[in-house]
Structure formats: C-alpha cells, structure tokens
Amino acid sequence: MNKKISYGIAFALLLAAPFIIYPVFLMKLLCFALFACAFNLLIGFTGLLSFGHAAFFGAAGYIAGWALRDAGLPTELGILLGVGAAALIGLVMGALAIRRQGIYFTMITLALAQMLYFVFLQAKFTGGEDGLQGVPRGKLLGMVDLSSDLTLYYFVLVVAIAGFAIVMRTVHSPFGQVLKAVKENEPRAISLGYDVDRYKLMAFVLSAALAGLAGATKTLVLGFETLTDVHWSMSGLVVLMTLVGGLGTLVGPIVGAIIIIALENKLGDLGNLLANVTTIEWFRTIGDSVTIVTGLIFIVCVLAFRRGIVGELMAYVERNGKARAS
Asked: 144-145 and 139-140 as β-strands: parallel, antiparallel, unpaired?
C-alpha cells in the first residue's frame, strides 16, 4: 500500500479514536510512543544503547509540572521548559558518556540517571516519594481551555505527530545518514573525516529533548509526576518497547509502546473477560502478573522475532517481493 495512503488512514483513525476509546488512555499511549521513538533514534539509528533515558522523561515531567503548578507559567511555556531541561541534561550526560563505547557507555548513562533519581528524591519541589500532585492543564496560548479530555487529546496528538515527524525527517536527512554510518562502521566514518563524537552528541541531545517532550506532555495529561518516571525501571521499559516493536524501524517503537502500555493497563480486564467466557477463575489473576506476561513476550520476541514485530513483518514482505520478482 502506498505510504501516503497508509499515513492518511492512520491519521483518520487517530482523529476518530477518542470517540471509541477512553481519551486519557489514548494520550498515555501517544506519550509513550513518542518516548519510544526518541529512544529508538539513539539506539536504532546511531547504535548507542542508553540505559538512562528515564532521566530525560522524568526530569521534563517534573520541570513542566513545577512550571505549571508552582510558577504559574502558561502551558506551552511549561512544556518548553521541560524540553529545555531534558536537552540540557542530555548535553551534560552525553558529553560524559560518549567518551566510552559499548557496555561502558550504557553503564555511565545508567549511573548518571540514578544520580539524578536521588536528586529528585531529595529535592523539595518534587514532593519526594509523594510526587508532584495537582498539575493544572491550563489554557493553550491563553485561549484554548485544555480541561476537556477531548480538546487535550487533539493537542497531544499534534505534539506526538510533530515529534514523530522530527524523528522521520532526521533519519532521512544527511545528518541521519551519517548517524547510520556511525552505527554500521564507526572507524570508517572517522576515516571519511566525520567528527563522530560531535554527531553522537547531537543525536543524544535530540533524543533527550524528544524524550523530554514526551515526559512533559504526560505530566500535563495525568496531572501528576512521580519518581517512577525517573527510576531505572522506566529506562528498561522503553528498551522493551523498542525491542518488541522493532529496533531501527520508524513504526516499530510505536507498536511496541502500544502493546506494553495496553498490557499494563488492560490485562486485568482481559483476564476478567476470559474468566467470564471460559468460567476458569484463574484468568482473573492475570492482571496481577503484568511483569510476568511482558517478560514472556520479551523472551518470545528475542527467541522467535529478533527483529521485533514490525521488523519481522518488513522482512517477510521483502522476501515475498523478491520471490515474486524471481
């Protein structure tokens, strides 16, 4: 199917979705899909496995929440402050981390993110373990009231599409081609005269800023921010989303985010439905075992779908195309 037609159908479905599915749940899906796309820009197209992306996601959420609730700033300015804070943290973390490669790079990002976690745990404005509660949605440009879930959904949809467009434009730009070259063969990219460290740092900061955009928007949607978003387990969750959906594909992280977040939120409902249909009461306990189910999905994907769901589908279509051509 033509890509433009596919995107058109997807856009029409997204416009109609809040009339069928609870808008807040959809907005949560959009925020995590953007978060996964931001992470995939770094690992899927640059080859850098960061285990500290929760720092950008959560920090932007806290800064945006503080700006909206305590400083009384307009909605758009609060989100921009969150994105700016995430980009600044990404610049500092990236400048330190890109000096090392492989597992050492990953461990440095994890260590720095955990240091930031304890900063947010101790800082007074974050509310410690209670979190930042009662964040107002405010008005967009001082005119559009975002208190309505439906209105806010379309605002979040615009934000998510803009973020996805930035990722897609970056991947297909000359800058993105250099990032792919760095991922495939870094010594050769250096031999061609590219300042590889500078390119990796730019990709790191861009990825951090987009993750911050997702985190700030999520705080606006839910009206609170907690330590969960800056904990290392959130960094693990975004890795899981990307691997399940398809590493290095544009749509894969979105699919992975939908699957993982839907399982976290709807597995209990699915268990109750299965129990009512089959009269097997055990299914009602599935909702208490979300981590086990997501872990099993991860194992299946690693063993049987190493390219992720979207990656395997793309490989299947490509094989069929070649078979028909021959």
From this structure: antiparallel
